[in-house]
Amino acid sequence: MNAVTVKDVYENALLPHQLHAQLSEREGQLLTNEITALLSDSYCIDDTTLKFISPFYTLSDYKTLNLVRNSRGRCAYPLCDKFLNGGSVTAEFSGSMLGFCSGLHYDCNNYILNQLSDDPPIYLRERIHMVSRFDFANMRKQTYQVELFEDYLKKKATEYDMDTINIELDKFRMSY
Fold first, then answer.
1. What does the domain layout of the chain look like in residue ranges?
2. Taking a C-beta distance cutoff of 8 angstroms, is the pair 49, 131 a contact?
3. Low-confidence spans in the chain with pLDDT less than 70
4. Residue 117, Cβ neighbours under 10 Å: how many?
5. Alpha carbons 63 and 101: distance in angstroms, whole number
6. φ, ψ at 77 (rounded to 5°)
């Protein structure tokens, strides 16, 4: 399957729900399941797509996405196009580094997990699914949108030298 774009998410998951501002509980879960299905055998084409889908995931739903990707033999990080060397990973190991192609993607994924919450559930996040089909380039940062670890590292790279970045990375790894 081709890489998933913002347009793919809009057309396959969001478009059917553009008629009202509040999702029902069933619609919220359906929307998340549609995005998970898109990413189960594919990956986000760019960081914009991953940021775009983040408001549609609770912590539990994102962990489910990781499990689904692992069960298909893919690195759990949705921005990664790589398959795992050993094939699929069982649920008991999916949260470990075994579910990822590299330590960096493990860290990237944990950085997202640390920003997500199960409260409020998707169906109570008013208007998150309302997107103009022509405004993808000018998407505003949404309340539930995550910052990517890659962006965090880029900011730190301009502030610090590499030794300091490695110290900060070690501190982050010790926090989980």
1. 6-102+117-146
2. no
3. 1, 87-95, 127-128, 130-144, 158-160, 162, 176
4. 11
5. 17
6. -70, 120
The 3-state DSSP class for residue 140 equals coil
Q: Which of 102, 118, 117 is nearest to 150 (CA)?
A: 102
- Please give the pLDDT value at position 90: 58
Residue with the two structure tokens 């619609």: 27
Question: What integer pLDDT is reported at residue 20 of this predicted model?
Answer: 80
pLDDT at 124: 81
Q: Is 36 in contact with 64 (CB distance < 8 Å)?
A: yes
Report d(CA 80, CA 89) in Å as an integer. 16
- Coil, strand or helix: which one is 162? helix
Q: For residue 79, what pLDDT is reported?
A: 97
What single letter denotes the amino acid at residue 153?
Answer: L
Q: Which residues contact 150 (CB under 8 A, 6 or more apart)?
A: 47, 108
CATH number, domain 6-102+117-146? 1.25.40.820
The Cα 84–Cα 72 span in angstroms is: 9
Phi first, then psi, for residue 62 (nearest 5°) are -70, -40
